[in-house]
Amino acid sequence: MTVAASTRGxxxxxVLTAMIFAVAMTFIDQTIVSIAAPTVQHDLGLxxxxxxWAINAYLLSLAALFAFGGRLADTVxxxxxxxxxxxxxxxxxxxxxxxxxxxGAEAWLVAFRAVQGLGGAIMFPAAIAIVVATFxxxxxxxxxxxxxxxAGGLTAIGPIAGGYLIQWTWRAIFxxxxxxxxxxxxxxxxxKPVTEHRPAPIDYRGLALIxxxxxLSVFGFQQxxxxxxxxxAIEICIIIGVLLLAVFCAVELRTESPLINxxxxxxxxxxxxxxxxxxxxxxxxxxxxxxSVYGQIALAEKATTASLLILYFFLGFVVCAQIGGRMLxxxxxxxxxxxxxxxAAVGFFLWxxxxxxxxxxxxxxxxxxxxxxxxxxxxxxxxxxxxRASRYSYGEATGITQTVRNYGASLGFAILGTILIxxxxxxxxxxxxxxxxxxPAAAAQAAKIAQLQGGSGNISAIPGFxxxxxAAATRDVLYGMAIIMAVAAAVALRGLRRGVQQDIAQxxxxxxxxxxxxxxxxxxxxxxx
Length: 529
Description:
By secondary structure, the chain is mainly α.
């Protein structure tokens, strides 16, 4: 190997490392806040719906702005937008950690969590584009496998790291992003990744439609626990949100330079895989929050111990992700996706059945099985979707799948969070009435407890009947996840075709421009969480 070739190799490795550090924050923050939720909620005096908004605002912002971030990066420059995204993300993290006490705490935290999502939406697609541009076709698959594998694996580390960080202060779960951001900026400055950009009009009309559609549809579900389904504002928000998304699709079909190329959904397999991802993500990201809160409230465990529930989930996930990846290469996506969805449905259902025993040991095997099912299907559905759209750019296909995934996670979080609060309130009301509390007083007290307001912060002091009621409400959430995954299995069984995908032939000049993820280079499957 010549000195020049060796230097180029080191330079490419440095660019890849810089991009991994840049996106690491976005993966960590999908889950790290979940484990600290009870602590943050008590310290700041947030309502239960408020802490859920603090988590969901991040996912919602990613879903609504990811496509915009990709187009902005193509227009302004990928390296520029990675740097801008990292700075925005780090600054928002610092401000989340500096959330003041008082009546404005909830609005402050939710707002800057949304700004974190903005930073991630700007940074992530630009980072992928830099990795794709840095590596040639022969080495790109391995580079992307490492990129998604290391960065995506941090999703699992988030809750575990959070459990230890909050022993010092819950604010550290946000401040940990600052040194990561500084390292990323330093590596970018040293490696100087070379990128090109092409000035083009930005589809602001499409941006307004997708932000409004995603925001209103999720807002309606999220607020239903507080406002009640009898409030017409709930139905109005959801209906208008869905209509805006439908209008967005219609407008994008006729837009010369669209925010999202919806023509790609003409590829039936790509469309089916994205439907599966939308459904599955309604359970995948929310489970971290619900498992963390369940462990601390129902089981009365410390955050570090409660994080073991998530560790069990990822144990099953990681092992079966490897198995699913080999199945994808050998027999195609249908079998691992169908089996994975079905296995996850069974795991969530049996986990729910055993959640009311208030024994972590009785649930461990079912948690592992639920994680195993998700591992078997999730990466394979994602990889197959991108490979099915191989006549389009890798970045464009990835941008669409990430938008769909984050929207699914936001929607699932809102719906399942509503189920949790409503069921918890109903069960507490019944428990209080059975203890002689008059109906109206029981309902009022249950509403306050269901929002977990005014607690002492000492989780171990929570009365046993309230712990049992919370476990029962969590059981219903897990049953909901089982239904979600059963629906995903049905869609996969009916919509996917058997067999290994064949590469789509392309002209030589197009093949050099359109990055592929062929054959054995589908390594992104196991780490693309």
